[in-house]
Structure to design on (235 residues):
């Protein structure tokens, strides 16, 4: 099952997919383009929730959260090459 | 007229009581009679296990993953049954697994996963404007920059 980046910020969609993949019932795949988009989206969400000056500590905190998120995702996602939609 | 199951259960109780009173021979005879009746009538000596759905089993175990319950049933960690094409597990086997290490690990995994997903959750609807392409102040711009 290919998971696009718009699914990632929705826990209600992601959790059943991740738990089913963890149990081995489905295979989740993403591609370098999706990973790059996910990085941008997740960083944006984390940073845009911050109110006030964007100190280094805030940026580091966002990096930590995104890293933790990617650690969890890479346990279940397989990377495949990008393909054009019509291929 | 009492049904066969309750009569057999009474016979078992009688055998237990005779054994407690020290009449071992008579207790053995009562048990043998009960077993003969069971084999003759096809009644199982064990009551049928109570079966529950993977969702209910997951709730009982304190986890959210019913797919994991089905996997444990496949791996024989839980007593699994196929009832009309649906997977069911016995409540007894679920209760046996309650304090096991694999369930504790699964709970910990789900806790951590929930924390990670909650940190980015935008809810059930479409992504809010803050996630969409942004024109104007970027999150990393200072608040003062917006005033300029």
């Amino acid at each position: 099952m290919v998971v696009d980046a718009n699914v990632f910020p929705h826990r209600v969609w992601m959790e059943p997919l991740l738990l089913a993949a963890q149990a081995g019932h489905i295979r989740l795949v993403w591609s370098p383009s999706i990973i790059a988009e996910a990085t941008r989206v997740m960083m944006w969400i984390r940073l845009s929730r911050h109110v006030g000056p964007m100190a280094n500590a805030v940026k580091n905190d966002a990096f930590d959260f995104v890293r933790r998120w990617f650690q969890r995702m890479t346990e279940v996602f397989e990377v495949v090459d990008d393909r054009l939609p019509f291929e | 007229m009492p049904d066969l199951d309750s009569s057999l259960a009474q016979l078992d109780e009688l055998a237990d009581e005779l054994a407690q009173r020290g009449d071992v021979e008579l207790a053995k005879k009562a048990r043998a009679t009960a077993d003969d009746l069971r084999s003759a009538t096809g009644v199982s000596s064990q009551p049928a296990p109570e079966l529950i759905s993977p969702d209910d089993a997951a709730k009982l175990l304190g986890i959210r993953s019913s797919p994991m319950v089905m996997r444990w049933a496949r791996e024989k960690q839980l007593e699994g049954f196929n009832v009309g094409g649906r997977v069911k597990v016995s409540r007894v086997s679920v209760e046996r697994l309650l304090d096991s290490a694999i369930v504790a690990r699964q709970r910990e995994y789900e806790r951590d996963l929930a924390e990670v997903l909650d940190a980015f959750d935008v809810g059930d609807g479409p992504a809010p404007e803050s996630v969409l392409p942004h024109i104007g102040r970027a999150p990393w711009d200072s608040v003062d920059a917006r005033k300029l």
Q: What stands out?
A: The mean pLDDT of chain B is 81. Residues 51-118 of chain B form one domain.
